[in-house]
């Protein structure tokens, strides 16, 4: 049966790893495992921007072994970017297996505000589900409270829910069923 593998990319808050390892199976109906390996993000560091290129992080994650159908979610506390944007909360391979999300801009302290652990973990859940949603072939949604709605600020993360809208949920479930039917018979559970 396919699984979600959580991989630490550098240091990441242990509470985030623990929380997501328990929350994601309920949302995706897939077991979640925390990898014993940690990916070093230093190869993705951009000296000029003082940030980490998320495409390079995905490349590092691509070198990790996983079974067909498994999803790999990198978790990091470093600040991510892609060349055309100032920052990203995360990035994923559309309709594939790899995703990464950063906790850096999801923390209240980044905005000079007091820590709020519950709010922080809710934000992490939304962004993890969002990025994993892309791996299931989901694109950005126009429904403002759908977890697949694009977020360009932490305020937009706070507005959306951690759930898929009915249309995105139908597409996600259709993806899983299509993948299950296309697996060789010996691998079906």
Strands, helices and their partners?
Layout: E1 3-9, H1 14-28, E2 31-39, E3 45-46, E4 51-53, H2 54-62, E5 71-76, E6 80-81, E7 90-92, E8 98-102, H3 117-135, H4 154-159, H5 166-182
Parallel strand pairs: 1-2, 1-5, 4-6, 5-8
Antiparallel strand pairs: 3-4, 7-8
Describe it:
The chain is α/β, with parallel strands linked by helices. It has one domain: 3-Layer(aba) Sandwich (Collagenase (Catalytic Domain)). It is built from five helices and eight strands. It has helices spanning 14-28, 54-62, 117-135, 154-159, 166-182, and strands at 3-9, 31-39, 45-46, 51-53, 71-76, 80-81, 90-92, 98-102. Strands 2-1-5-8-7 form a five-stranded mixed beta sheet, with helices on both faces. A three-stranded mixed beta sheet has the order 3-4-6. A hairpin with a 4-residue loop joins strand 3 (45-46) and strand 4 (51-53). The longest helix is centred in the middle third of the chain and has 19 residues, at 117-135. The radius of gyration is 16 Å and the shape is globular. Residues 180-189 have low confidence and may be disordered.
Q: What's the shape?
A: globular
Which CATH architecture is right? Answer: 3-Layer(aba) Sandwich
Q: What is the CATH topology?
A: Collagenase (Catalytic Domain)
Distance between the termini: 6 Å
In what order do the strands lie side by side in the largest sheet?
A: 2-1-5-8-7
Over all CA atoms, what is the radius of gyration?
Answer: 16 Å
Count of individual beta strands: 8
Main beta sheet, described? 5 strands, mixed
What is the beta-strand fraction?
15-25%
CATH class: Alpha Beta
Mean pLDDT: 92
Give the tally of structural domains: 1
Oligomer: single chain
Decide which structural class fits the backbone: alpha/beta
Within CATH, the superfamily carries the name Collagenase (Catalytic Domain)
Low-confidence stretches: 180-189
- Helix fraction bin: 25-40%
Please count the helical segments: 5
String of helices and strands: EHEEEHEEEEHHH
